[in-house]
């Protein structure tokens, strides 16, 4: 759906070239929620804004549905942008216009619809985002979550195939964030909408994304299915994001480990294995005693996963590990 081929971007600042995006090759499949995560200045906004050409690339090609976006003239670019919606951290609503008029704006600008058609579509969109009762209010009369719902309705007005989300939940509290992410999740499925979202929170990625790319200093340093990247992070930047999200402290863990004897392993269960009564069975069969040092069960999008850190004492620990692996549990040995 979205393809970056050797795309790079530099800005000129006081006569000096600043690289915001190093040469980037990327493929975002249709119908996916694709997350880009990185710290401030990593290049996320630049990459996102290259997709709808709010930024011009310094080199390379960007294809969207096989169309070379980088080659579009002004007229074709206007048409192309109607197929893309965008939502923003600070909502970017027009304060002087009602909720309904904000949502109607892209349709009026497109100039292809009658007043009655616009009214009908706006009513449908406001109903979909749960704001029918607020159509005549002004943005200042809404909560942050409601404002972002207006932003989403407006972004979807021209029936785009792609939605770009620029830190769309960063200004919201955790509960409102969850509601907005749930709405994006539903819209992705209902409309087969491709969503590209940027965030600095791993939890946002974990809740809604299918794939993730981790950015650091203008480079994509790690990329893949969220479950793979989240559960088995390889790059130090990714590990930091995951540890922050899991509220793990490497030093605290090391202190805990020094208090226990035996082999220390981290087990990762995914899907069905998460709820299987494996540990007791394997402990009985192999004579291994275990104590739990840390653990959690959660979801990555809709897939349950569990992670447990155990110390194993006595018995046949190697046999226990083999049995866990045979049951599709990933075993990392943290201390032999
Ligand atoms: N218009 C611009 N002119 C000059 N430099 C820019 C411009 N926009 C971004 N940059 C620089 O490019 C780099 C990447 O910025 P970008 O905004 O893409 O990062 P980001 O990961 O989105 O950060 P944040 O989360 O803070 O928005 C930074 O060093 C930034 O200072």
Description:
The chain is α/β, with parallel strands linked by helices. 37% of the residues lie in helices and 31% in strands. A six-stranded mixed β-sheet has the order 6-7-8-3-9-10, with helices on both faces. Strands 2-1-4-5 form a four-stranded antiparallel β-sheet, with helices on one face. Strands 12-13-11-14 form a four-stranded antiparallel β-sheet. A hairpin with a 2-residue loop joins strand 4 and strand 5. It is elongated and about 75 Å long. The mean pLDDT is 93. The site of adenosine-5'-triphosphate has 13 residues, from strand 1, strand 2 and helix 1. Keywords: Amino-acid transport, ATP-binding, Cell membrane, Membrane, Nucleotide-binding, Translocase, Transport. It is found in: Cell inner membrane.
């Amino acid at each position: 759906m979205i393809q970056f081929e050797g795309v790079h971007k530099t800005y000129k600042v006081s006569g000096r070239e600043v690289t915001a995006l190093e040469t980037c090759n990327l493929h975002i499949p249709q119908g996916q929620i694709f997350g880009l995560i990185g710290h401030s200045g990593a290049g996320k906004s630049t990459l996102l804004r290259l997709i709808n050409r709010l930024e011009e690339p310094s080199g390379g090609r960007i294809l969207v549905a096989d169309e070379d976006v980088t080659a579009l003239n002004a007229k074709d670019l206007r048409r192309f942008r109607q197929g893309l919606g965008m939502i923003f951290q600070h909502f970017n609503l027009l304060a002087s216009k009602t909720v309904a008029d904000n949502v109607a704006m892209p349709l009026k600008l497109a100039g292809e619809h009658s007043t009655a058609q616009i009214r009908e579509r706006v009513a449908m969109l406001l109903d979909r985002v749960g704001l029918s009762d607020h159509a005549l209010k002004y943005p200042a009369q809404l909560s942050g979550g409601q404002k972002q719902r207006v932003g989403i309705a407006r972004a979807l007005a021209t029936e785009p195939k792609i939605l770009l989300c620029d830190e769309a939940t960063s200004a919201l509290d955790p509960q409102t964030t969850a509601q907005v992410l749930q709405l994006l999740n539903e819209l992705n499925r209902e409309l087969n909408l491709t969503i590209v979202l940027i965030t600095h929170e791993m939890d946002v990625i974990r809740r809604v994304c299918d794939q993730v790319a981790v950015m650091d200093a203008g480079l994509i340093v790690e990329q893949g299915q969220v479950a793979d990247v989240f559960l088995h992070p390889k790059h130090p930047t990714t590990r930091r994001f995951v540890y922050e999200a899991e509220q793990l402290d490497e030093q605290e863990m090391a202190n805990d480990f020094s208090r226990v004897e035996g082999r220390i392993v981290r087990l990762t269960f995914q899907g069905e294995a998460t709820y299987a009564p494996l540990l007791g069975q394997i402990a009985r069969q192999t004579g291994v005693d275990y104590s739990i040092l840390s653990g959690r069960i959660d979801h990555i999008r809709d897939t349950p996963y569990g992670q447990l850190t155990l110390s194993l004492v006595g018995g046949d620990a190697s046999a226990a590990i083999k049995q866990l692996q045979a049951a599709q549990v990933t075993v990392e040995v943290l201390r032999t």
